[in-house]
Design brief:
- By secondary structure, this protein is α/β, with parallel strands linked by helices.
- It has 17 helices and twelve strands.
- The protein has a five-stranded parallel β-sheet. Strands 1-5-6 form a three-stranded mixed β-sheet, covered by helices on one side.
- The protein is globular.
- The protein starts with a strand and ends in a 13-residue tail after the last helix.
Length: 393
C-alpha cells in the first residue's frame, strides 16, 4: 500500500454521532445536541510544524497531510464528525477555488490563507467580463488533484481500531461562494457603490458569474455523478454589511437560480458577521433550510426567534474559544444550547472558524456543555422553554 494510517476511535461513538446527525434533520435529538466545527487545514498545520504554504506543494503532499489531519481531528477533537469508519478527502484551497475559476488572481503567503486578488478595476472592465471555462484556474487543479486522490484512496490502508476501513472521496465540488461574494472577490470593495451607481451593469456581471458557477457545478457532476441529495450550500459573507433591500435585489435572484438547479431539498447558507437584518429575507425569500456556522455577532436568542424552522449551526465566538477560559467557553456553549436547542435541528459549533492555536480543552468545554445539558434536558423543560418541540428518539 502507498499510504497507511490507523485511527483509534470507538465504534459506539460513531453510531451515536450518526443517530444524532440523522435526528437533527428531523428536528429531533437522541440524547443531546450534536457538536461539530469548521476546522480547516490552517488549524492543523502548526500542530504538525508544517509551514502552511507547503500543504499546497503538490497533490500527493496534500493527500498525505489530509490523512494526518483527519486522524488528529477524530482522535483529539470531541465532536460528532466521525459517524462511520471512513475518512472523506477532498482537495483544499481555502476559499480561492471559485474566484480563481472566475478569473481572479491568487495570493499565496507562507502561513495565511490563500486569497483572491481583484482584477477588475473599473466598470468598463466589468462590462467586458466573459464567463471562463469551468475548469479554469484552481478549478482545473482541483479536478486533477481530486482524480489523483481518488486513485490513492484505493492505495491507502486505513484501519479503525486495527480493523479495515476505507478512504472515500467527498463529492467533487468547486463552488460554494455566492455570485455576490465572487463579484466582490473580482472587483473589491468598489462593487458596493457600483451597485448603487451602475445597477444594470452589476446585474449583468452577476448573471455572468452565476452562469459560470452553473457550468462549474455541472462539470463536477459529470466527473463525479454520485447523487448529491438535492443539496447545495452558499457562503454570503460579503452581504452582511448590505441592507435587506440591496441583499434582496443583488443577491437573492442569483442564489435562487443556483438553489433552484441544485438545492431543491437542502438550501444551506453561511454568513459571518451580524446577519440579523437579513434573516427575514433568508427565511422567506431564499427559503433556506440550514444556516451553517453563522457569525457569533448574532445573539443566539435572536437567531432562534428569527429563524424558527431552520436548522441552525453555531455560533460561539471563535476568539473566546481561542483566548477564553474553559469555563467561559462552556458557559457560552450552554447559552447557545439554551437559546437555540429547544427549536430542534440545532447543532452546536463555532461562529465561525476555529482559530489556529485554539486550546483543545476549550473545544472539550463545548462538548462538556452539550453532554451536561443533554443529561439535564428534562429539567430544563420546566423553564421558559417548556413548550419547546423537543422529541427524544
Amino acid at each position: 500500500m502507498r499510504f497507511e494510517i490507523n485511527i483509534d476511535y470507538p465504534y459506539e461513538k460513531m453510531e451515536l454521532s450518526r443517530k444524532r446527525m440523522e435526528a437533527r434533520q428531523n428536528f429531533q435529538y437522541v440524547d443531546r445536541v450534536p457538536v461539530n466545527y469548521c476546522v480547516v487545514p490552517r488549524f492543523f498545520a502548526p500542530l504538525f510544524g508544517l509551514r502552511y504554504i507547503d500543504f499546497f506543494k503538490d497533490a500527493e503532499t496534500q493527500y498525505y497531510w489530509l490523512l494526518q489531519f483527519a486522524k488528529f481531528q477524530i482522535e483529539n477533537i470531541a465532536a460528532d464528525l466521525c459517524q462511520s469508519p471512513t475518512i472523506s478527502i477532498h482537495p483544499y484551497f481555502d476559499n480561492a477555488i471559485p474566484p480563481s475559476g472566475q478569473g481572479a488572481e491568487v495570493g499565496w503567503t507562507d502561513d495565511n490563507p490563500i486569497r483572491a486578488i481583484p482584477v477588475i478595476h473599473n466598470v468598463e472592465q466589468m462590462e467586458r467580463f466573459e464567463v471562463a471555462r469551468p475548469d479554469a484556474g484552481l478549478r482545473g487543479v482541483t479536478v486533477d488533484w481530486w482524480l489523483k486522490m481518488k486513485e490513492w484512496a484505493q492505495e491507502t490502508r486505513l484501519t479503525f481500531n486495527g480493523q479495515p476501513a476505507k478512504v472515500e472521496m467527498s463529492p467533487l465540488g468547486m463552488g460554494g461562494l455566492s455570485p455576490h461574494m465572487l463579484a466582490v472577490d473580482l472587483v473589491g470593495e468598489d462593487f458596493y457603490w457600483w451597485m448603487l451607481e451602475y445597477p444594470e451593469q452589476c446585474h449583468q456581471f452577476l448573471a455572468k458569474i452565476t452562469q459560470g458557477e452553473i457550468e462549474a457545478e455541472n462539470l463536477c457532476r459529470r466527473i463525479d455523478p454520485r447523487p448529491r441529495g438535492d443539496a447545495y450550500g452558499l457562503a454570503e459573507d460579503s452581504a452582511q454589511i448590505m441592507s435587506a433591500k440591496l441583499f434582496k435585489e443583488f443577491c437573492t435572484p442569483y442564489d435562487q437560480q443556483l438553489f433552484g438547479l441544485f438545492g431543491s431539498k437542502v438550501r444551506a447558507v453561511h454568513m459571518c458577521g451580524d446577519s440579523t437584518h437579513l434573516h427575514q429575507v433568508l427565511k422567506d425569500t431564499l427559503q433556506i433550510t440550514h444556516f451553517d456556522i453563522f457569525g457569533y455577532l448574532v445573539p443566539p436568542k435572536v437567531a432562534a426567534a428569527n429563524l424558527s424552522g431552520v436548522r441552525l449551526w453555531g455560533n460561539i465566538n471563535p476568539m473566546l474559544m481561542l483566548e477564553g477560559s474553559y469555563q467561559a467557553v462552556k458557559q457560552a456553549a450552554w447559552e447557545c444550547i439554551e437559546a437555540m436547542g429547544p427549536g430542534g435541528g440545532f447543532m452546536l459549533g463555532d461562529g465561525a472558524n476555529v482559530c489556529p492555536g485554539t486550546p483543545l480543552q476549550n473545544l472539550q468545554a463545548v462538548m462538556d456543555a452539550a453532554e451536561e445539558y443533554g443529561l439535564h434536558w428534562e429539567s430544563h423543560q420546566t423553564k421558559e422553554n417548556i413548550n419547546a418541540p423537543y422529541t427524544s428518539q
